[in-house]
Amino acid sequence: MFGMDDKKFRLERFLNDPHHTLIGYPDRGVVKTSAESSSKPVFVPRYPPQRTTSGSEQSTISHDSSQLSEPSSVTSLDSLASQILTGQPVHTGFGERPGPDPQLGIGTMSAIGHDYYLPCPLFDIMDCRFRFHPDDIERWILHSESHFHPSGPPPKSVCNFCDQMNERFDSTVTGDRYESWLNKMLHISQHYALGDLPENSRPDFFVLEYLKRIEAIDLEDYNNAVAYTERPPVDGLVDSDVESPSQARARREQQRRERVVDDLAKEKRAIRRAGVRRR
Fold first, then answer.
1. Domain check: are 220 and 135 in the same one?
2. Strand locations in the chain, DSSP E?
3. Where is composition skewed (Basic and acidic residues) in this entry (predicted)?
């Protein structure tokens, strides 16, 4: 077994000496002797750079020492690693390592472009303004769980966008509250990817009850959140406990009919009259 320093030395020697073959590394090329100059060997790279030529040019190519020569400079091990990590084209005796393809996006460090972002799921309840790039979905989920620390995510929740209650995430089904919350967050991320906007989301009343129970929000914030309604504003619309004048009159009349008056004096007189008649 070779140590790290020994491997580095052998690789540097291999990269800088085209005529030296090391055990454990492929042969870099072959050495030919030109007919015109037998004193100077000609190095033919194992993977020469490709070159497009016409048929007439291919028939007239001469492999002499003026056309095939050793590369003027061979990259050292440290600079080679640096070029590979930065995505730059690498020139060695093996040929050229192509740089990043802008059309394929391979080799680049830039994130995929998205026209949406992932807001904190409690942005409207706890006034949290954190938002994340779609590629940072794991950090987005971890951030959402931090609002429930140290109690953990709620045992039950629903989708904030779906009209039906079919998308319900219940830990009694999964057996794990974190898994249920993860499923909800992944489901919501798909809504954002499809174009749903944060301002069109609804409050999750299961989550609201849980936040109040663990005292993550106060009663005022809870009451403001549960007052959410999708009913459009209507002129003259009042609360259900408001009584109109006609309703008040009807109520008083009904109470009058149902009222029973106990007159003790009248009852005593009736008792005396009944006794006189018996005599």
1. yes
2. 29-33, 41-45, 90-92, 95-97, 118-119, 131-132, 156-158, 168-170
3. 250-262
Whole-angstrom Cα distance, residue 278 to residue 190? 93
Contact predicate 42/32, CB 8 Å: yes
Domain identity same for 123 and 163: yes
Please answer whether residues 117 and 134 qualify as being in contact, where contact means their C-beta atoms are separated by less than 8 angstroms. yes
- As a whole number of angstroms, the distance between CA 198 and CA 182 comes to 18
pLDDT in tens, 52-108: 444 444 444 444 444 434 444 444 445 544 544 454 444 444 344 344 445 544 444
**Count of domains for the chain:** 2
- The answer to whether 122 and 147 are in contact (CB under 8 A) is yes
Q: Which of 189, 210, 226 is the last residue of a domain?
A: 226
Nearest-angstrom CA–CA distance, 75 and 238: 82
Read off the pLDDT of residues 180-212 as tens digits, 9 standing for 90 and up. Answer: 999 999 999 999 999 899 888 888 899 999 999
Domain of 79, in residue numbers: 4-97
